[in-house]
Amino acid sequence: MFYAPWCGHCKSLHPVWYELGNKLTRHPVTVARIDATLYRTAAEKYNVRGFPTIRLIGNDRTLEYVGDRTAAALSEFAIKGSRPLLPSVGSAGKLRDIRKSDDVIFLSVGTSDDTRKCLSLVAPQTVHETIIAEVTNDGIVMVDKDTRPTYINEDTEMRPDLSISKSSGIIVLKDNQVFEYTGNLADCINLVEWIKSERFSTFQVGSYPVIHPLLFLKYKIVFYYGDDKGRVSEMKKLSSERGSLAGDFYFIQINKAEYIENLISAFAEVGSVIVYEPGTEVYSYSNDPKKSIKSSVEEHTSNKAPLYGGTGVWAGTKKVWYRLSSNVLPLFYDHPFIMGIVVVVPIGLLLLCCCDEQRSKDDPIRQVRSSESHMDLLWDEDSNSKKKITAEEEECEDEEEDEDRESEDDAEEKDPDLKKEE
């Protein structure tokens, strides 16, 4: 943890940090803290921009923590983040152990060298969120060949409920389902993008650490603000019916309005359903308790629902107004005296300066004084110019006299009799 002595959030995190150290005594993880104001070189090396900054450093990887600041959450992050990359799964028992610790698991079957290189790029970035493992025993995953399900290894004790359509590929286990990567394994960019997009459970209870990484994915997000058990059950059912919806979605239940209101820059009511598109920042809003969540999603995908938000000028203006009304105006009601000093006094001083300048323009005495000063300035400039001209004329006359003397001296040298006559 990088901290600063004056940081209030850092001070409140210190007891949690000591508790975390006690939790990880049996794990190969060192819990330390660094005063970034003293060790600035280390802070700059790890790109520390705020306090506290929590990073897991080691095993050729650096991971930043953005979750809840509790000892349990930090402990899980440290344990998962420090585990080996691309572990081997050679038995059904090993697979069962992994499935107990992770909600989302990626399995690579018949891994080639090129695929392993692609996986080694994304594994360090996602090791604390999901696990990517290599299947080394053919009996763990069933392979379909010629439309007839068969097992590479006919060991009946190891036959699981997993299958793959070809002898080499990648599947993901999530939400009690199996999804197979259908793209080209040689296309590293799309493979990495697919793993990043599928690394979370389709249904989650939302908070900022849960919502934030989803905003960088290509999938749409369905938010339900409330705790109605019927609505929550419907969301869980929809999350397991990916094929029945037009598009890929994540389903998030939220219990605090601020999570969604800061995202859409609008006020949300309890029981509302919001379908949000991270790429365009467009969303649809429904607060009809009789309308199912599935109907709200289908209306959004079919462009039948009114759309709000976006990235245009009008949408930006509405966002500014929302932030003012939700953040600044409440401060006036709660602390009118302080806000009066902070906001009203500077504005009043600015208005007084503007009014004083306008009065000076309308005051005839000041206008006369200003005009006299202007005339004096012009007179001084004119006098200086006249003095300059007189000096130049005198200089020219002196030069002419010098030239006359030189010409007379030349004439005398040429004609000595002329000098005698004189």
3D architecture notes:
The protein has 422 residues and is α/β, with parallel strands linked by helices. It is built from 14 helices and 18 strands. It has helices spanning 8-23, 40-45, 71-81, 92-101, 113-126, 188-197, 208-214, 229-239, 257-264, 293-301, 313-334, 336-362, 364-414, 416-421, and strands spanning 2-3, 34-35, 55-58, 61-64, 88-89, 105-109, 131-135, 142-145, 148-150, 163-164, 169-174, 177-180, 203-205, 220-225, 249-254, 273-277, 282-286, 307-309. α11 (313-334) crosses α12. The model is unreliable at 144-160 and 418-422 (pLDDT under 50).
Give the arrangement of secondary structure elements.
Elements: E1 2-3, H1 8-23, E2 34-35, H2 40-45, E3 55-58, E4 61-64, H3 71-81, E5 88-89, H4 92-101, E6 105-109, H5 113-126, E7 131-135, E8 142-145, E9 148-150, E10 163-164, E11 169-174, E12 177-180, H6 188-197, E13 203-205, H7 208-214, E14 220-225, H8 229-239, E15 249-254, H9 257-264, E16 273-277, E17 282-286, H10 293-301, E18 307-309, H11 313-334, H12 336-362, H13 364-414, H14 416-421
Parallel strand pairs: 1-2, 5-7, 6-7, 8-10, 13-15, 14-15
Antiparallel strand pairs: 3-4, 6-11, 8-9, 11-12, 14-16, 16-17, 17-18
Helix pairs in contact: 1-3, 5-6, 11-12
Can you give me a brief rundown of this structure?
It contains 14 helices and 18 strands.
For the sheet with most strands, the description reads: 6 strands, mixed
DSSP summary, beta strand count: 18
Rounded radius of gyration (Å) = 40 Å
Helix content: 40-55%
For the termini, the CA-CA separation is 109 Å
Poorly predicted sequence stretches spanning 5 or more consecutive residues: 144-160, 418-422
Strand order of the largest sheet: 13-15-14-16-17-18
Which class best fits the helix and strand makeup? Answer: alpha/beta
Quick check: average pLDDT?
78
Describe the global form. globular
Number of helices: 14
Percent of residues in beta strands: 15-25%
